[in-house]
Amino acid sequence: MDKDTRTTTRSAEHFLGKTLALCRIAKAERLNVTPARVLDIVRTLESIDCLNEDDYRVAMRVNIAGSREEEVRFERIFN
Known about the structure:
The chain is an all-alpha fold.
């Protein structure tokens, strides 16, 4: 494995870890985070530019928050 591949792999693993941590926090805050929703999040993240914070936040929010109240709670957690 070359240096660029190792760096990309480490970055992806770090990013996935941060995403899963955010899911755990959201679940602890009583948002409806299920294993199916986590898989949906991962699938969604494959189709966006995850380095764009706004795109990342929206992708996470639409998969986790099911109401306006939950959107507000999600934004509080995300920030």
